Amino acid sequence: MATAKATLSVDGPKPSNAPPRTIDDFDGDVSRPPHASRLLSRGKSQAQVEKLTIQVEDGPDGFVPGFLHMPPDFTSPAPVTHHRTAAILLSGAGGGVVGPSSIYLSLAAKLAALGSGVPALRLDYRYPARNRYCVADVRAAMGFLQDLYGLDCFVLVGWSFGGAPVFTIGGSDKRVVGCATIASQTAETDGIRRLAPRPVLLLHGTGDSTLSPSCSERLYSTYGDKGSKRIELFDGDNHALGRNARTAETMLLGFIAGCAGLRVDDSEKKGVVDRELIDESERMELMNKGGDLRPPERIQ
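and the corresponding structure tokens:
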């Protein structure tokens, strides 16, 4: 078994031989979870999924793609009587838009389908694993959602390397109301020291051979004692939480809803949260289609 690391970050300038991906590089199969229609029994229209190309004003290659899941009854800008929170879901050191075990694809659809739906953006990176550029991508996405939709509170979720931009921004931008990570690295995550009292959720598999679960344990300690923190270590599970994907997804949904000030009632739990939108046999294929398993990322 390979020795688990503490970082997947890459140093140095952006690569000259690998231009950023565009929204057209992604297969249409990654716009919605395969079984999104299972949410329709609630009597609401299906959430809209917008293919986005967001401008990042730091160079001629400044455009980052993503998929935005919008609640079907959302009005823009968000009224003052409605929550103004959005979730931004970030993948690992290879980029991608469906997340570990395709959790993000299902999670985003469910967030948008809640009674007081939460917009969710599955954002790629222009230059994965290079935190400087990834941070610029996320900041541009936050500005886009605020300017166009009036959303000015954000919950950031990151897998693996994605913990670096999550905590870099979370520690410096008060628009961030909560941070969650799955199998996070510790490099370039010093911003977690400045996150409290805003809440943090840390998920990790103890069988992760890519990034050691001790990474999340160190982050839990570094956060301090002045806010709400939770760590969940899944016994024997891998880097993508393949054995506990549905449990992790449910925990993330509850965390994001809580950060938005929402309570998930029993009817939403039955009609949205508990619905299986991705079969277990489909998860890895979707990760490949979404670009989430590009090297150096892997399942184990």
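(Above: one complete record from the training split.) The longest strand covers residues 48-55.
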